[in-house]
Task: structure prediction
Amino acid sequence: MESRCFTFRAFLLGAVFSLVISIAFPYALLAMNTAGMSSDYITAGAVFLFFILVGVVNPLFKLLKRSWGLSQVELIVIYVMMITASAIPTWGFTANLIPLLPSVFYYATPENNWAELLQPYVRDWLVPQDPLAIKYFFEGLPRGHSIPWAAWAVPLAAWCSFMLAIYLMMISMVAIIRKQWVDNERLTFPLIQLPMDMAQEGKPGSVMGPLLKSPMMWVGFGIAFITLSTRGLNHYFPFIPPITFSSYLPLIHNVINLHIFLSFTVIGLAYFLSLDVGLSIWLFHLLTKCQMGVENAVGYSLRGRHELFMEGSLSVSHQGMGAMLVLALYGLWTGRRHLRDVGRKILRGAEDVDDSDELLSYRAAGLILLLSSVYVVVWLNLSGVPLVVTAIFLLVAFAIFYGLARIVAEGGLGFARAQMTAQPFVIYSLGTEMVGPAGIASLGLTFGWAGDMRTMVMASAINGMKLADVGGVRRRPLFWAMLLAIAVSLTGSIGVLIWMAYTYGGINLHSWFYNSLGQLIHDDSVYKVANPIGPLADFDIVWPRFLFTGIGGTVMGLLMYARHRFLWWPVHYLGFPIGATFMISSTWFSMMIGWTLKAVILKYGGVSLFRQLRPFFLGLILGQLTCSGFWTMVDFFTGETGNIIYIGMLI
Result:
């Protein structure tokens, strides 16, 4: 089985598709202003390319010569590499960081005072230093000049080594917790349902898998593809009216404004969630909206500044942080027996603990986690963050990563983000004096990998390992396949982002990444340097926030207790930590529709009807993602820009 999985062609095709994901889709998003095909946990670009592979390329191989066809296990290896690569190019890391680095100099003005309050504290090896290289990055190279790669050599080497250590931490953590999530708790992993069915082989002699032969799948596919294509056609032929999928519903004199958005992708995913999880996601969004509406109606708000990437009001965002921290801590507590076994295997080589079929042996995973953690701590300390602050920041950041990975694995959310990031939480907890100006400047740069994140390698890795487990592919070489995909994606995405900036001028590309993001982050760092804050000196500002953090953690703990103690308890806790995020605001309505359809189908048709309709809902997902990919290809060949076919949410 192992030799059939990890063939040379599987690695080669996985690397090639990873390169396409890291180059083509960032170009489409940043230069063509289309949908983000590599921006979210749904990994739309990977699904689109996989559909081409299993629906066109592989059948042609089989028709030419049967032995040329890729087996199911080879297809799974390729797909795991693609979703790993998909977590890096845009909102996962590269597009967040690369324009951020030179912006610390380019957008400095006498008015914002960055030259005095920020630039002296940014280490030289973190950002490019050549003034002309920085200017041309945003304004484009003059004719006849070549890209100044030398100016980027040191920062890129520093950041790539750092991110490789971060990704190794994530993968080794996933290797350690896989058995707890997959075998012990049996999480559902809804995001792997579609690729698993796509990879299935047909009957002997068949060149097409059973899913692609299902009429029900093509009905769902057609509904999504045709209706969404009206938007693409309208872009080229304005006389064709587009079907509108988005509107807003104001309630109670505009105190509450609900976003009504229809997403076939989310409806399809909701069909594969347990009913209590689906209910949790849309119900907690409505409850959170009610809380913010009451706050607005009575004029209540916490004192102080609304921090970057906080979702909802200050009180709601801190509630979400408390809930996320409890989710991570409770997950470690429920898995304590497994973690104890892992510890015994690492320290004493316990023979009763079997890790032979894991991605990494527990000793290898523990060693990789230890060494990469040490490297990350030293790196951050050298960048200006004090050791104590570094340790606390990493604990909070990885608690958020762990919680989001759990939400994606169990809730199947293709679109998710935390309500609050680790940076402001740590600064308000310890105070700006303890963090220091250099620490604040360095933590500002960490927003590139722990800030406005809509996807991450940790979630892709656990989904990939579950997919490999279902397909019988869970073998040690999968680790090297993931590393190859990471290396290819880092190299390709960094190269294309820098090439686009010098070719077209960064100020002419995606305004959020090349213009707004850097200015917002560096302005925030300067504000914190110029306006010190501490938990004791600013008691009236800091402690009310942490009161709501405690409230959120307490409510989350009670929800988790009720979920595990009372069989009749109808609501899962999973939606509470993310109830106020923009992602849920765009998807709650479709989640409610999918939840309602599943509840009605199970009630009146039973499991039999549920299974019969399964291909239809898979078709809804595949149809919307394929439509977005199809029109992206059309736009590339026609030279059009701004033709956005949504992959599941509004952006």
Observations:
- The first helix runs from residue 2 to 5.
- Residues 322 and 549 are 4 Å apart (CA to CA).
